[in-house]
């Protein structure tokens, strides 16, 4: 034998019936603070700084490769030179 009970109520009514605390004000406050912090940090970071933060060695390597090719094209360095 199976018994099925359907309860039609809102989440707030279910919370009150089960005696659970109302955390909506706390959630709103935390989300507002989080949004404020995210907006403050996003406005302070420009794309160049963001890329240098994420890929510091990668960008330096690209710059070194560019300098190497530029020096090779201009004839500024020869194989075996210790100039960089």
Largest sheet: none
Mean pLDDT: 81
**Total E-strand runs:** 0
| H-E string | HHHH
Radius of gyration: 30 Å
Count of helical regions: 4
Task: Assign an overall shape.
Answer: elongated
Indicate the percent of residues in helices.
55-70%
Low-confidence sequence ranges = none
N→C terminal distance: 85 Å
What can you see in these coordinates?
- The chain is mostly helical.
- The chain folds into two domains: 8-44; 47-79.
- It has four helices and no strands.
- The N and C termini lie far apart (85 Å).
Jot down its keywords:
elongated; single chain; 84 residues; mainly alpha
Write a brief caption for the model:
67% of the residues lie in helices and 0% in strands. With 84 residues, it is mainly α.
Strand and helix layout:
Blueprint: H1 11-18, H2 24-44, H3 47-54, H4 56-74
